[in-house]
Each structure stands twice: as structure tokens, then as C-alpha cells.
């Protein structure tokens, strides 16, 4: 159990290390396909949530 917790913590830290500095690039990429900014932000938020949820479950 402790090993699984360490793995999740490490995965969470890696996700944040990669994801946080690249948020603007990711949103810009989404805006290429979803030109409405509010819709693109919704896609970004939903995608982030799904990635985070799958990573930590």
C-alpha cells in the first residue's frame, strides 16, 4: 500500500512538473481546433481533469 502511495505521489509530481510550465502551449494547441476561447478553456479544463483523475486513481 505504501509503495502505491509513493508511486501516485511521484506520478502527481511528474505531472505537475511537466504540465504546469506548458499550460499556455496546451491551451494554444486547443485553440487551433476550438477557436472560441471559452470553449477551448472548457476543453482544456475537462482534459486536465480526466488526465489528473486517471493518474491518481
Q: Secondary structure elements and their pairing?
A:
Blueprint (H helix, E strand, L loop, with lengths): L1 H18 L3 H11 L3 H20 L1
Helix pairs in contact: 2-3
Task: Record keyword descriptors for this entry.
57 residues; 3 helices; mainly alpha; single chain
How many structural domains are formed by the residues? 1
Q: Mind describing the biggest β-sheet? A: none
Number of separate strands? 0
Low-confidence stretches: none
Number of helices: 3
The helix/strand order is: HHH
- Give the class from helix and strand content and strand pairing: mainly alpha
Name the shape in a single word.
Answer: elongated
Radius of gyration from the CA trace?
14 Å
Strand content: under 5%
- Determine the N-to-C terminus distance: 13 Å
Q: What integer is the average pLDDT?
A: 87
* Helix amount: over 70%
Report on this structure.
By secondary structure, this protein is an all-alpha fold. The chain has one domain (2-56). The chain is built from 3 helices and no strands. It has helices at residues 2-19, 23-33, 37-56. Helix 2 crosses helix 3 (37-56). It is elongated. The mean pLDDT is 87.
Amino acid at each position: 500500500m505504501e509503495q502505491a502511495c509513493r508511486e501516485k505521489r511521484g506520478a502527481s509530481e511528474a505531472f505537475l512538473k511537466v504540465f504546469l510550465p506548458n499550460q499556455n502551449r496546451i491551451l494554444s494547441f486547443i485553440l487551433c481546433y476550438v477557436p472560441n476561447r471559452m470553449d477551448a478553456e472548457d476543453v482544456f479544463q475537462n482534459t486536465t481533469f480526466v488526465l489528473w483523475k486517471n493518474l491518481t486513481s
